[in-house]
Amino acid sequence: DSPEIITKKVKGLLNKLTLEKFESLSGKILEYANQSTEETDGTTLQLVIQLLFEKATDEPNFSNLYAQLAHRMLQRIDPEVRDENLRTRDGKVVAGGALFRKYLLTRCQSEYVKGWKVSMPENSGAEQLMSDEYYEAMKIKRRGLGLVKFIGELFKLDMLTEKIMHECVRQLLSNMSEPEEEEAESMSKLLTTVGSKLDRPEARHFMDVYFGRIRELSQSDKLSSRIRFMLVDLLELRSNGWHNRREQTGPKTIAQIH
């Protein structure tokens, strides 16, 4: 199939993906990814990962579902899918699950490094709120927050390492003198997602340092009250042993709703 057809078909499947339909639809998406067995450079697999990534970052409330899909693909990708441009240290071609993980990690890193800081239009009047510039700015911000949430969900499924999580948190907390709203909000989203898994005895010292900084930021007059309240919620979440009193939004089965 051509890239255009695969894009259309996989987007359609991702749009229909729910917990109830997970088994059947994830299998169909995997079939498209496995068309890369006919290639030597993993082009189709990279395309499917790109589409999955775009969907996951665009819909943060469902990032857990898309992380589960990525995990399923990692487990079941055809071992014959390979990229002859990528080699292990001993010269073997990277293939199968190792290739999927490599592509996914590369995508995460490139999007994260690219960043998502965006200047919201100054004038917040009704006319400005309806402008294309405003909608584009909101879209970039939403995808940035979606990216952080998706990275966190991938970590919870052991698809990204603890080292990567600590690097992300440290980077987002590095600017204490001139804190950025986007960084503070992203860090809050990330630690809300992964904090309970990161906060183990071996890493307690690092977490204590992070939360000392978070406490300081929660009292900073350089951040909006919305962000400061968000940081206070995060401090409370840790002090409550990472038990969130608010019900988490995310995918539910029909049985769970009724």
From TrEMBL:
GO MF, one example = translation initiation factor activity
Q: What is the lineage of its organism?
A: Eukaryota, Fungi, Fungi incertae sedis, Zoopagomycota, Zoopagomycotina
GO cellular component terms, semicolon-separated: cytoplasmic stress granule; eukaryotic translation initiation factor 4F complex
Residue ranges of every copy of the MIF4G domain listed in the record: 7-241
Gene3D superfamilies in the record: 1.25.40.180
**Name of the protein described by the UniProt record:** Armadillo-type protein
Q: Has UniProt tagged this entry with the keyword Zinc? A: no
Task: Indicate the principal place this protein occupies in or around the cell.
Answer: cytoplasm
**InterPro entries in the record:** ARM-type_fold, MIF4G-like_typ-3
| PANTHER family in the record | EUKARYOTIC TRANSLATION INITIATION FACTOR 4 GAMMA (PTHR23253), EUKARYOTIC TRANSLATION INITIATION FACTOR 4 GAMMA 2 (PTHR23253:SF9)
Localization per Swiss-Prot or TrEMBL: Cytoplasm
Family, according to the entry, reads as follows: Belongs to the eukaryotic initiation factor 4G family.
**What organism, scientifically named, is this protein from?**
Piptocephalis cylindrospora
